[in-house]
Specification:
Dihydrodipicolinate Reductase, domain 2; binds nicotinamide-adenine-dinucleotide
């Protein structure tokens, strides 16, 4: 559902997995409100039905990828659940917390396999960081993380659409639309959060669409983390993250969350850890063009994992419940920003 930027990434990933014999999951239907876009995707997936009718596409399928602008996710999810399909829904789930909570409840009630597009979880680079800073790690307790996430305002360049400047479709700006990934990551690495303090600002001037968010997260463990999320006009910086994590006895950092490497500094030495060798060989074997290899890496891993989970009956991860936690953090950050940065509590379930 949705033959745009991220639908293209999933379509390429699914085709590659199918051709490589890694998943018995051909793309059988493609749907877009723009019929020409659907036709174009169908040409890339021979035999697939091209349609503007969501129900007709879903009638062909056993699993659906919802890759449309955020405000449309809930209605498409409801169509999918009515048919009992397994669902992969792009992040953010919805434009607001109430819809995200209703969607998380709906997938639970329907009992279908569900996964959300928080693809940083599929990064072998960040999985290595999680291993290093996790409770069993040799670096001691994790004290703090500093995450800077910057990209050019995503209504230009390789983005072929402008809905991210419209709050009624996107629900917010860089914090919800992009850094919902980062909120999920900080929770994953440092554990549950009980309060958020945040400031937001709007330089580009699209109403309700902040292009700067600075947040401090208070973790239950006693750690605190900070996030700087910015949409700028530097066209040479399409999307970049720098992560630094300090543990009691070690410093872990990276400048590229997709390709790595992971740098580790201890009191008695330093390591540079490469995690992507096997992925690179797989991408090369599949004949994926070099330009697509970086961005495709995470989608291949996430889609392959979703399909393997569905096939084996194991619950896919991250699920809508994981996404709901990130939505709660985004909501708290907006509530804090609305009060000029006062702490906003998270109700821990
Ligand atoms: N996980 C990630 O890393 C990631 C990256 C980019 C985008 N996203 C998310 O993916 C979603 C789509 O983003 P995008 O950049 O691909 O947008 P896009 O504008 O490039 O593509 C969206 C497509 O959906 C179509 N569409 C709109 N409403 C529809 C409907 N009701 N039914 C069928 N088709 C419809 C549009 O015509 C368009 O072709 C958003 O929620 C976005 O936040 C996630």
């Amino acid at each position: 559902m949705g033959c745009g930027f991220i639908g293209g990434a999933h379509s390429r990933a699914l085709r590659a997995l199918h051709r490589a014999g890694q998943a018995d999951a051909p793309v059988v239907a493609v749907c877009d409100v723009d019929g020409e876009r659907a036709q174009e995707f169908a040409r890339a997936n021979p035999g697939a039905l091209a349609t503007t009718d969501a129900g007709a596409a879903m009638d062909e399928a056993e699993a659906v990828w919802i890759c449309t602008p955020t405000a449309t996710h809930r209605a498409l999810l409801e169509e999918a659940l009515g048919r009992g399909l397994a669902v992969y829904c792009e992040k953010p789930l919805a434009t607001n917390l109430a819809d995200a909570a209703a969607m998380a409840q709906a997938v639970m009630d329907a009992g279908v396999p569900h996964q959300v597009g928080l693809v940083l979880r599929a990064s072998s680079v960040l999985q290595e960081v999680a291993r290093l800073v996790g409770p069993a790690g040799a670096l001691g307790r994790t004290m703090t993380a500093i995450l800077r996430d910057d990209q050019f305002f995503p209504i230009q360049g390789h983005y072929g659409s402008t809905w991210r400047a419209d709050v009624s479709v996107a629900g917010g700006g860089t914090l919800l639309e992009h850094s919902v990934h980062d909120l999920d990551l900080l929770c994953w690495l440092l554990g549950p959060v009980d309060a958020v303090m945040a400031r937001t600002a709007n330089f580009a001037g699209h109403p309700g669409v902040e292009d700067l968010a600075v947040a401090t997260l208070s973790h239950v463990s006693g750690a605190a983390s900070s996030l700087v999320s910015v949409w700028h006009e530097i066209m040479s910086r399409p999307s970049t993250r720098r992560l630094e994590v300090f543990c009691e006895r070690g410093y872990v950092w990276l400048d590229d969350e997709q390709a790595g490497p992971v740098h580790v500094e201890r009191g008695d030495g330093a390591d540079v850890i490469e995690t992507t060798g096997e992925e690179d060989r797989f991408l090369a074997r599949l004949g994926i063009p070099t330009a697509w290899r970086g961005p495709l890496r995470l989608y291949l891993a996430a889609d392959g994992d979703f399909l393997a989970s569905v096939a084996s009956g194991r619950p896919p991860r991250p699920g809508f419940d994981d996404a709901l936690v990130a939505h709660e953090l985004a909501d708290a950050a907006y509530r804090s920003a609305a009060t000029g940065g006062q702490p906003a509590a998270i109700a821990l379930s």
